[in-house]
Write a structure and sequence with these properties.
globular; mainly alpha; single chain
Length: 210
């Protein structure tokens, strides 16, 4: 059964469909957070448990990327290589747009790949895109169908709707708190930047007078 067929079978009403998609979003966001934590912890030889924008153990960018790949590729292409290429392209587009939007909203960069080879404006890079492509193959041709079926089972058993509603409240509260903190940090950084500019101009004036 394809992803669209499974979603249609589960979606016996708007609430069931919304619960199915939201639980999948949280599930893949949590798995993405786990993968990034392990990857960064091994690279830095220390525990890096604080990953992502939110306070909770989820990275929504992975959840949105996974849902986009599942929906756009309808659960994956028959050829895993094509899944790899298209998945890498789609997830890299999500990462680029997210980086651009967050920079415009909060006046700061949340990640920068300028120091890596084959990067695009420091927002995406070839190595990460390749890893995303591998993740899409694992998602579509490996664990994805079982996770989708399990989530569909929860919703059909009517436990998933209540679970999704409770988790949505926690998720929304985390988003509100995280956005407020990011706005405050961005405002402080902007003030520090202005102070730095004023000090630089003052130093130039003093040098010119001397």
């Amino acid at each position: 059964m394809s992803f669209s067929e499974m979603a249609a079978a589960v979606g016996r009403g708007p609430w069931a469909m919304a619960a199915f998609l939201f639980l999948l979003l949280l599930l893949y966001s949590f798995l993405g957070w786990c993968g990034e934590m392990v990857y960064c912890s091994l690279g830095q030889m220390r525990l890096c448990e604080k990953r992502g924008f939110l306070n909770g153990p989820i990275c929504p960018i992975y959840g949105h990327g996974a849902l986009l790949v599942l929906a756009a590729l309808d659960g994956g292409c028959e050829n895993p290589l094509l899944t790899f290429l298209l998945g890498a392209l789609l997830t890299s587009a999500v990462e680029y747009v997210t980086s651009f939007a967050m920079e415009k909203l909060f006046h700061m960069r949340w990640w920068d790949y300028s120091g890596r080879r084959f990067n695009l404006n420091g927002r995406v890079c070839l190595r990460n895109s390749a890893l995303f492509g591998v993740g899409c193959v694992v998602l579509c041709h490996g664990v994805g169908p079982a996770l989708n079926a399990f989530t569909g089972y929860l919703v059909e058993a009517r436990n998933g709707v209540l679970m999704a509603q409770a988790l949505f409240l926690l998720y929304a509260a985390d988003v509100v708190l995280s956005v407020r903190s990011a706005i405050q940090i961005g405002s402080r950084l902007e003030k520090l930047h202005q102070i730095h500019e004023e000090l630089s101009q003052r130093l130039e004036q003093l040098r010119a007078e001397q």
